Amino acid sequence: MATTTKKRASKAAGTKTANAKSAKAAPAKKKKAQATSAKGAKTKSDKLSAIDAAAKVLGETEEPMTTKEMVAAMAAKGYWKSPGGKTPHATLYSAITREIGAKGRESRFAKSERGKFKISA
């Protein structure tokens, strides 16, 4: 019995040293800087997200809109276009309701009536 206890102890000790070796910090990776051209071309970071574009559209119209209307207006004005999804309006609706739920009165959006949103005051 003493030999099995020794084997277990040596295995456990070996495991600890192996874990300690693998726990060493990996060297930090350098982030690539995004190149911007002198002409002022838009980079990936300059594009608006769907929810930011919706806030911009609602701020410009100042009328309550459905998410389908928002998606159409965002595409027409060139703020945002769907990357090919079948229901971008449903995704936008979900994002807006999550923001309202998370931020409450400090949210950019307010529900004006069933299925319509406006910019909160």
Structural class: mainly alpha
Assembly classification = single chain
Amount of beta strand: 5-15%
Q: Sketch the major β-sheet.
A: 2 strands, antiparallel
Radius of gyration: 26 Å
Uncertain runs are 31-38
The helix/strand series, from N terminus to C terminus, equals HHHHEE
Strand order of the largest sheet: 1-2
Look at the structure and give the mean pLDDT. Answer: 80
What shape does the CA trace take? Answer: extended
Number of helices: 4
Report the span from N to C terminus. 76 Å
Helical content band? 40-55%
Give a count of the beta strands, DSSP E runs of length 2 or more: 2
What does this structure look like?
With 121 residues, the chain is mainly alpha-helical. Helix content is 50%, strand content 7%. It has four helices and two strands. The chain has helices at 2-22, 50-61, 67-77, 88-103; strands spanning 109-113, 116-119. Strand 1 (109-113) and strand 2 (116-119) form a beta hairpin.
Tell me the layout of helices and strands:
Elements: H1 2-22, H2 50-61, H3 67-77, H4 88-103, E1 109-113, E2 116-119
Antiparallel strand pairs: 1-2
Helix pairs in contact: 2-3, 3-4
Salient structural properties:
extended, mainly alpha, 7% strand, 4 helices
Brief overview:
By secondary structure, the chain is mainly alpha-helical. The chain contains four helices and two strands.
